[in-house]
Amino acid sequence: MLTDLLKMLMAHILGDFVFQPKSWVNKRGTQIQYLFYHVAVHAGLLILFFINDLSNNWQNILFLVAAHLAIDSLKIGWEQKWPANPVRIFIIDQALHLASIFGIYFFNHQEVFNSILAKISVNHIMLYAIAILLIVFVIPIVIRIFFSKWNKETDFNNKRKETLFDAGTIIGVIERLMILGFVMMNFMEAVGFLLAAKSIFRFGDLTNAKDTKFTEYVLIGTLLSFGLGLLVAIALKEALIII
Q1: Calpha distance 22→35 (Å, rounded)
Q2: Residues of the domain holding 56
Q3: CA 205/CA 109 separation, integer angstroms
Q4: The domain boundary residue, chosen from 93, 118, 143
Q5: pLDDT tens digits, residue range 101-113?
Q6: Do residue 146 and residue 210 come from a single domain?
Q7: Tens digit of pLDDT for each residue in 33-59?
Q8: What is the rounded CA–CA span in Å between residue 214 and residue 206?
Q9: Half-sphere exposure (CA, 13 Å, Cβ side) for 16?
Q10: Same domain, 93 and 125
Q11: Is residue 55 located within the same domain as residue 130?
Q12: Exposed, middle or buried: residue 134 (CB in 10 Å: 0-12, 13-18, 19+)?
């Protein structure tokens, strides 16, 4: 049963990332044949993977090919309408593709779906959701408020504006999500490695800056981000044990 899911995922990865030339991606917005070429590659891969059992899987293949054509057509429209949001469009596009794959898999293997549902705890899902919301949305606001008393210093603000827009916030969210994952896997050593790695990457910038205030800002921000991330992760782990 799992083999069918792995075949569909493999076909999707090969079709979307390995056997799709960049020229097709650039031209499919204005020349529709390249979209059909891309979908034909997916169809060929699915047929190849299920060649030994086509009689039982042709409907699944037809559904996935049609779904892929529909989703990629939507993506082309979104790219033309919102050209400034390629990352968001890419995430939505891939999420829809994966949803179609898992949807057809669970439709054909409902016993697997029912087994997974039986193991899911609503309370656990809510706890994970709360932890992720805290890490992604709440902690950045807490850190921003904490540093607000220094935001009026012109020299300090100019130094911060020399970096990519919102890069610090994005890096902070990613590192806290990594901390959450490491803590849940009981891999606390990786948290120390992550802190050390970030310190090494920052060492050159801080040395060249020769700015005590900026150095203090980076150190405080890093420790605050790591500390709050660890606090949320450990609280989640303990709450999962209690509930």
Answers
A1: 12
A2: 2-118
A3: 54
A4: 118
A5: 999 999 999 998 8
A6: yes
A7: 999 999 999 999 999 999 999 999 999
A8: 8
A9: 17
A10: no
A11: no
A12: buried
Tokens read off for 28:
């499919």
Buried b (16+ CB within 10 A) or exposed e, 95-123: ebbeebbeebbbebeeeeeeeeeeeeeee
Nearest-CA neighbor of 29 among 71, 89, 67, 80?
80
* 12 and 54 co-located in one domain: yes
Q: Same domain for 131 and 225?
A: yes
The answer to whether the CB of 225 falls within 8 A of the CB of 168 is: no
Q: Which tens digits make up the pLDDT trace of 126-157? A: 999 999 999 999 999 998 888 887 766 555 55
At residue 201, what is the residue type?
Answer: F
- What is the length of the chain? 243
What is the rounded distance in angstroms from the CA atom of residue 117 to the CA atom of residue 101? 18
Residues 6+ apart with CB under 8 A from 130: 236
How many whole angstroms separate alpha carbon 231 and alpha carbon 236? 9
Residues 82, 18 within the same domain: yes
**Distance in angstroms (rounded) separating the CA atoms of residues 49 and 46:** 5
Q: Which pTM does this prediction carry?
A: 0.78
| Alpha carbon separation from 141 to 67, 172, 173, 224 (Å, rounded) | 39, 12, 11, 12
44 in the same domain as 83: yes
Domain count across the chain: 2
Residue with tokens 């699915």: 46
